[in-house]
Design goal:
This protein is an all-alpha fold. Helix content is 81%, strand content 0%. The chain has one domain: Up-down Bundle (de novo design (two linked rop proteins)). α3 packs antiparallel against α4 (62-79). The radius of gyration is 12 Å and the shape is globular. The N and C termini lie close together (11 Å).
C-alpha cells in the first residue's frame, strides 16, 4: 500500500507543476490530505471526490485529466 501512495504522491507532484494556479492549490491540498494521519478509506474517498472535481475543470489539458483518472484508479485499487 505504501508504494501505491508514493506513486500517487509522485503523480500528484507532477500534476501540480503543470496545472493552472487555481488547481495547484487544490492538488496541494490533496497531497496534504493523503499524508494526514486519518483512516485510509476515508482519505481515499475524499481525495477521489476532489480529483474527480478537478478532472471536470475545462481548463486542464487531456494529459492531466488522464493522469488524474490514473490516480483515482490507483487509489481505488488500494482499498479493494
Amino acid at each position: 500500500m505504501k508504494s501505491e501512495i508514493k506513486e500517487v504522491n509522485d503523480i500528484l507532484e507532477e500534476i501540480k507543476e503543470i496545472v493552472p494556479k487555481n488547481l495547484k492549490d487544490k492538488v496541494e491540498e490533496i497531497i496534504n490530505l493523503l499524508n494526514e494521519n486519518a483512516p485510509f478509506s476515508l482519505k481515499v474517498s475524499k481525495v477521489s471526490s476532489m480529483l474527480d472535481e478537478i478532472s471536470e475543470d475545462v481548463n486542464i489539458n487531456p494529459y492531466v485529466r488522464t493522469r488524474i483518472w490514473n490516480v483515482i484508479s490507483l487509489l481505488e485499487k488500494t482499498i479493494s
